[in-house]
Specification:
This protein is α+β, with helices and mostly antiparallel strands. Helices cover 17% and strands 23% of the residues. A two-stranded antiparallel sheet has the order 1-2.
Length: 121
């Protein structure tokens, strides 16, 4: 269950833990990015509070503009040993190839709140 606004009550269909208690709510960020490694437009979802804090601090130090910087999020390790490193670089000019890839892609971020595919009409 995902929702844009804070929940006022516990949803009836919330996931329960092994003791039958509701799992905690998790704040997440989701936004459209161009993945230079994979050469494609994607949706980046960040659920890790540490990664959110790191990016926010670095972006705030660059006039607070998420859309005016390139971010680099690097993941190492697996499972409980997973670590993330973040960095923010000066923006790379949007190439014609990236602009065309973005324009050709249907993107509906609101679909994430419905459990639907944000790239499908």
């Amino acid at each position: 269950v995902r929702q844009k606004e804070k929940f006022n009550m516990i949803p009836a269909d919330i996931k329960l833990d092994k003791d039958g208690m509701p799992t905690p709510f998790k704040h997440f960020w989701a936004f459209v990015v161009y993945n230079y490694s994979d050469k494609m437009v994607q949706i980046l979802e960040i659920t890790q509070a540490t990664v959110q804090r790191q990016l926010k601090i670095k972006i705030d130090n660059r006039e607070g503009k998420f859309d005016a910087n390139d971010f680099i999020v690097t993941r190492t390790g697996k499972g409980m040993e997973t670590e993330y490193d973040t960095d923010v670089a000066d923006p790379t000019p949007v190439s014609e190839e990236i602009a065309a890839a973005y324009a050709a892609k249907y993107i509906n971020l609101a679909a994430l709140y419905e459990g639907a595919d944000p790239f499908t009409h």
